[in-house]
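Below is how a single chain appears once it has passed through the pipeline. First comes the sequence as given, then the structure the pipeline wrote out for it. We keep one example in the README because the format questions we get most often are answered faster by looking than by reading.
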Amino acid sequence: MTPDLAGRPARSGTVRAATCLAWGVVYLGLLWAWKGGFLVWGQINDFYHATPLQFAPIPNFVPGEPSGVGIPAQLPRALLMLPVLVIGKGLGVSPHLVFTIVGVGLVAWSAWLLGRASGRRDEGFWIALGALSLAMNGRMLWALAGASLLLWAAAGRREPKRLFLACFTAAFFCTVSTGAFSIAVAAIGWLLVQRWRTHREARQPLIGVLVFAAPWFLSAIEKNVSYFARSEDGVVAGLLGHGMGRLLLLAGHMPWMLPLALGLIALGWWLWPRLRGWLGTLGLPPFTLELLALGLAGGLFGYSTAVLAAPAALVVAAAAATRLRQKLTSPTA
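Resulting structure:
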């Protein structure tokens, strides 16, 4: 019996389906009212205007001049979005509408993956991810699904073919963002090192994914370095200024920031052993904390990259809520 279901009366499939459907209706209403759906981003339109495909300009934005910098790095994300443009053109509907349907499907699929990875009901993940997506750029839904797929792949002892397909697809989805893709590749590398001795059957598929990803990974790094090297602040400061690392850059202008940062580091150093012991009692799926740490570290260099920490954070929150509920309802509590 899974952690979330232990000691609780089972709910019928009808009730669960009704809950998911009701939230789906509310979610779609909020999505259209709040942001008008998920929009195809301008970079995709620009890319295809630089190729023989020459898709007609997508409504709501005017195509700009493609810079040509980092085109190899942009190719995977362009291939990822190609079916959206083709379907929109074939049906004679807006690609934005097609992408909105795809985006909602990605959110629902991510919730399903987290439910399977954690052994908990997926309705809560569906509601949480849906609410989170309302504040997200549509393209990062691919990365959200990629991180959820990585967590699912690492949660059990998958067959080599399924492990390769899952990790390859996760990395491919994360190519929508250079930072997200870098974190995905780092996660796969970490998973390989972690399971080198204990899961020998995982070596070949994980190495295979890294071999496929290497050219695009190097191209993505080159693109970012080339872009930020042109800034007056330099590469490192430019990268940090693109994410939560901006707070570190403020330390030079605000003297009180440095003591505050040192104090927070000391507090974290003191809390970590105690927090780690508590986290060990939650029954988290394997690789949850590792993916959470990588996503948060990536957030220093890009706000959108922190999206990769969201699935792991939700799994931790769900496990903590379950444990708290069990303590409150236990006769000995």
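The two ends are 22 Å apart (CA to CA).

See the next section for the split statistics.
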